[in-house]
Amino acid sequence: MKTGQAGLELIKSFEGCRLEAYLCPAKVWTIGYGHTGKVGGKAIKAGMKITQEKAEELLKQDLKSIESAVIKAKKGFVPNQNQFDALVSFAYNVGAGNLRVLLSNGTRDVKTVAAKILLYNKANGKELGGLTRRRKAEQALFNK
After folding, report:
1. Would you tell me how many other CB atoms lie within 10 Å of the CB of residue 34?
2. Active-site hit among 9, 15, 20, 56
């Protein structure tokens, strides 16, 4: 499976797009839609700029590994497109390790996953409004 339009729109709406490199809250150089890898073989650093087209390209590249992680992790059920998209958005934000925990290594059913996705709204033990909004949006898409 590949991320559908609803998933792309969800990710883009929460990640936002910055065409000039910036330090994220975790002090990691980031550009585009949350891209932290290299760009054209070069490490991201202060002053680096990209085009909107490059940001789209980087997002699609980054999604390939996330999509693969979702495909490997979902053993308990076969997701529909909306569920897949929601899980891709979730993993893009919190990583494949947290995806495996959410899915309990593929043993959770759809109803349990939908309920538990809301629990991933904290950073350093503190609830963050932006994460709560994102998890609710992911849950809504997952339940469609």
Report:
1. 21
2. 15
Please check the confidence at residue 80 and state whether its pLDDT lies above 90: yes
Retrieve residue 135's tokens: 């998890």
Residue 86, both tokens = 């929601």
pLDDT band per the 50, 70, 90 thresholds, residue 25? confident
Q: Which two three-digit tokens encode residue 102? A: 């959410």
Reported as a single tens digit per residue, the pLDDT across 100-136 is 999 998 888 999 999 999 999 998 888 999 999 999 9
Question: What is the pTM for the complete model shown?
Answer: 0.91
The class (CATH top level) of 5-142 is: mainly alpha
Q: How far apart are CA 55 and CA 127, in angstroms?
A: 29
- Model confidence at 69, pLDDT cuts 50, 70, 90, reads very high
Asked if 53 is an active-site residue, the reply is no
The answer to whether residues 36 and 62 touch, using CB atoms and an 8 Å cutoff, is no
Cβ atoms of 87 and 54 closer than 8 Å: no
d(CA 144, CA 142): 6
* Residues composing the chain: 144
Residue listed under structure tokens 């087209």? 53
Domain boundaries, the chain: 5-142
